[in-house]
Design a protein that fits this description.
Helix content: 25-40%
Strand order of the largest sheet: 3-4-6-11
Number of helices: 8
Radius of gyration: 20 Å
Shape: globular
Oligomer: single chain
Strand content: 15-25%
Length: about 270
């Protein structure tokens, strides 16, 4: 939706496919359809020239992920078979990586996910990259921005935990990207003359979560997180590099969490009872 707003402002004719198009931003032409239902996709316009596939699974189970990230792209590409699609961009996730020791990963790193989510995303990526259109994939890390306050609430409520002093092994790292850069990176990839097959969509500062928690706590004026069991997390433990995306000419709007979180924290504090 954020990308659609920008493309409309740029003067493009933008269609938005949703089961309920009434929720689309102003200026976006709604298409009432369901990616799981090929018959409903007959409503698509026939002159689409650029596609961004940014679907979400309705629930966190294998069937939902298969429908959203494997069957959905296949259905959409089949429905657009006769359209003049010059670029097909698919949004996936850094969950395709299974690295768990805090090491750096990039687009050339092995993709050996340990869960069904990453495995489904990889199958969907392959379907798109092997499909009929010139395609590229953007693997996003944890998205944050206005209204996305889960991490902030964990710190504010004293539920966040950090590694105890002398903890063996690497700290638990977090990778993130501001929602404005999600839109900006996608807009950038739509205009590249010859994009690579895959890009990582992350900011400049993969950082230990303990560092981010303490940053948030200081600005909230609450006690820093206590030491305790930090857990593995859904995404393993890795540091994702954005070198390819930045090298392609994209300039991050929000380079690190240090620039991104203050405005979100101010809004959070204003809304607090």
């Amino acid at each position: 939706a954020r990308l659609a707003e920008e493309l409309v402002a740029d003067g493009h004719r933008v269609h938005g496919l949703r089961r309920d198009p009434s929720q689309l931003p102003a200026g976006v032409l709604g298409v009432a359809a369901d990616l799981r239902d090929p018959e409903s996709l007959r409503a698509l316009p026939t002159d689409v020239d650029h596609v961004v596939y940014a679907a979400g699974a309705g629930s966190r189970d294998p069937e939902a992920y298969e429908a959203a990230y494997v069957q959905g792209p296949r259905h959409l590409m089949a429905a657009l078979a006769d359209a003049p699609v010059a670029r097909f961009v698919m949004v996936t996730s850094t969950a395709v990586y299974g690295q768990d020791d805090g090491e750096w990963v990039d687009e050339a790193s092995p993709t050996e996910p340990t869960g069904f989510t990453g495995a489904a995303l990889l199958r969907g990526e392959r379907a798109v990259l092997d499909g009929p259109f010139s395609a590229t994939v953007l693997r996003l890390a944890g998205i944050y921005g206005p209204g996305r306050t889960w991490l902030i609430r964990q710190v504010a409520q004293g539920e966040a935990r950090v590694e105890p002093e002398g903890h063996p092994g690497p700290p638990r790292f977090g990778n993130r990207i501001h929602q404005d850069d999600c839109a900006g990176a996608l807009r950038h990839l739509l205009t590249l003359a010859d994009p690579a097959p895959v890009y990582l969509g992350v900011d400049d500062a993969p950082a230990p979560l303990s560092e981010v928690y303490r940053f948030v706590a200081e600005r909230l004026g609450v006690a820093p997180p206590a030491a305790g069991e930090v857990g593995r997390g859904r995404g393993g433990n890795k540091r994702c590099s954005n070198a390819r995306l930045v090298g392609s000419g994209y300039t991050l709007r929000v380079p690190t969490y240090r620039e991104g979180y203050p405005a979100i924290l101010e809004a959070f504090q204003r809304a607090a009872p």
